[in-house]
Amino acid sequence: MRRLPRTKKTHSGHLSGEYIQQKRNVIFIGNSGTGKSHLSIALGEEAINQGYTVKYYTVPPAYRMN
User: Is residue 1 part of a domain?
Assistant: First the structure.
């Protein structure tokens, strides 16, 4: 899995919906309480504001990395 660089440009690309136009997924991975749901909801709301339909998925426990 390739990790994205932590830069403002990466974040602004997500907020602009660039990942949608490029037909790319966004996956948040991390420990409980690190803000994954908060970030995904923020991106989803912004996508809705831009006229897109949004779906949220959770990974079943059998597929989670430990």
Answer: no
